[in-house]
Amino acid sequence: MDLSQLFVPGNVIPSLKATSKKQVFQELAERAARETGIEERKIFEVLLERERLGSTGVGNGIAIPHGRLAEVDRLFGFFARIETPVDFDAIDGAPVDLVFLLLAPEAAGADHLKTLARVSRLLRDKAMCEKLRGARSADALYALLTESATPHAA
Predict the structure, then answer these.
(1) Strand pairing category for 62-63 and 12-16
(2) Which of 21, 68, 112, 151 could form a disulfide with 108 if both were Cys (CB 3.0 to 4.6 A apart)?
(3) Which residues are catalytic?
(4) For 51-90, what is each residue's pLDDT tens digit?
């Protein structure tokens, strides 16, 4: 799936103010509720439930929280750059400043996993992360995320 199908520029937060993982989840749940029409509390609880299984902080300042909701009819993505990196219990112990939230239908199965893999590959690219950390606007971040993840014909 092309990442531009997951989200719109309005789902990109260029400068999220948060001091904890829980606050990051609250802010993202609020944004996701507006986009999906699902109750903010429900989204927040799904994110916390997933996080209890193990941190979604994958290292190098990156977290990819995700969850499945019966009310979601398609995959939704949200991206935030956190102003001051927060502790996320990441596998490398580093604080997180780049967060990509993925919400999927309960029956998404392979699509959910493929999209998680695509996002993970994108955010493992150190040059991409440097560009994301340097971009100042939601539009610039959105362009970086969607253009780099779009397959180009040879």
Answers:
(1) unpaired
(2) 112
(3) 66
(4) 999 999 999 999 999 999 999 989 999 999 999 999 999 9
The SS3 of residue 89 is: coil
Establish if 53 belongs to a structural domain: yes
| Element (DSSP H or E) covering residue 57 | strand 57-59
User: How many other C-beta atoms are found inside a 10 Å radius of the C-beta of residue 93?
Assistant: 10
Q: Which two tokens stand for residue 91?
A: 């596998």
pLDDT in tens, 2-36: 788 888 889 999 999 999 999 999 999 999 999 99
Q: Which helix (H) or strand (E) holds 5?
A: none
Q: How many helices (H) and strands (E) does the chain have?
A: 5, 6
Q: Which two tokens mark 24?
A: 């990051």
Whether residue 154 lies inside any domain: the answer is: no
Pairing of strands 62-63, 57-59: antiparallel
The H or E element that residue 25 is part of is helix 21-36
* Domain around 29: 3-148
pTM of the model: 0.91
